[in-house]
Amino acid sequence: MALIKKERGRVTYHTREGNRFFSDVVVEELGDGDLRLHLAGLACGAGVGRQDPGKEIPLIFDTWEEWLREAGICNSLAEVDFLEVHAFGAAPKTPSPVSDPEGYVAERQRVREVYAAAYSSYWAQKMPDNGLPARFTVYVEDVPDPKASFEVSATALYQKSLRR
Fold it and tell me: Which of 9, 10, 35, 95 is the most buried (most CB within 10 A)?
């Protein structure tokens, strides 16, 4: 399904038909061809079982890259500079904090460590020449979608002068 484009002054919204809650990409024109990009907070659903950030994180970043290509902004995430990334990991679905408190604490720690490794690995492999965001918040708590394993959103900058 193609992105729907809506322009209002210096801001362009890219969303999909039927999505009445948020835009996938919001683009703010800064002048000289530079663009501030706000990338949607995605919720990945692990549903049941263990969270798998090693698969989930690349999927999110690859989806953002696809959206930027579809919007005609750039071809690769390596062409943008991430300023902030906000990630909210859901609390583990299993084991139960009531029946297995030690297992639950261990799973929370595993999830934190695996998410951190997945993010840093993606950066190192796909964007080794880019700087790191100024803020990279990761919280392990509950998220609005009870089936989701995490939600993530980001702000990035496309600098046209670097592409000349």
Answer: 35
Rounded to an integer, what distance in angstroms lies between the CA atom of residue 74 and that of residue 77? 8
Using one digit for the tens of pLDDT, what is the confidence trace for 83-95?
998 877 777 778 8
| pTM, rounded to two decimals | 0.83
Using DSSP, state whether 143 is helix, strand or coil.
Answer: coil
Which pLDDT score is estimated for 48?
46
- Domain range 4-163, CATH architecture: 2-Layer Sandwich (3.30)
Q: Which of 153, 124, 121, 148 is nearest to 137 (CA)?
A: 153
Residue 159 phi, psi dihedral angles, 5° rounding: -105, 105
Q: What is the rounded CA–CA span in Å between residue 164 and residue 157?
A: 16
Q: N- to C-terminal Cα distance for the chain? A: 31
Domain boundaries, the chain: 4-163
Side-chain-facing half-sphere of 147: CA atoms under 13 Å: 3
Q: Please name the amino acid found at residue 139.
A: Y
> CB neighbours of 93 closer than 8 A, spacing ≥ 6?
46, 48, 49
